[in-house]
């Protein structure tokens, strides 16, 4: 995947996998991955819905799972707290700790902090 942080030189703080064909919710798997990566309780985290629409996230994964294109070609990145979360259509979840990230904060609050990538 070309533009997502999943290709940055530092490894993720935590990697997890979600079964896109299973009955569990992706948003719950993401929260568990963040909890594991940060050693915080779910109550100490910013609610996921403040960073991204969980229903849209589920629909993206459903689309990737039923697409004729390789599911790994779908990717979504978003920020929550001091973390970057990368989700791929094949069920990969990578959590990066960006608390010490050298990138300047250019946010004015007008950007969503969500990147989507689809390779053909």
From TrEMBL:
Chain segments carrying region Disordered: 1-24, 95-120
Source organism superkingdom: Archaea
InterPro entries found in the cross-reference section: HalOD1 (IPR040624)
Biased composition range(s): Acidic residues: 98-120
Chain ranges of the Halobacterial output domain: 25-96
Cross-referenced Pfam families: HalOD1
Protein name: Halobacterial output domain-containing protein
Species for this entry: Haloterrigena alkaliphila
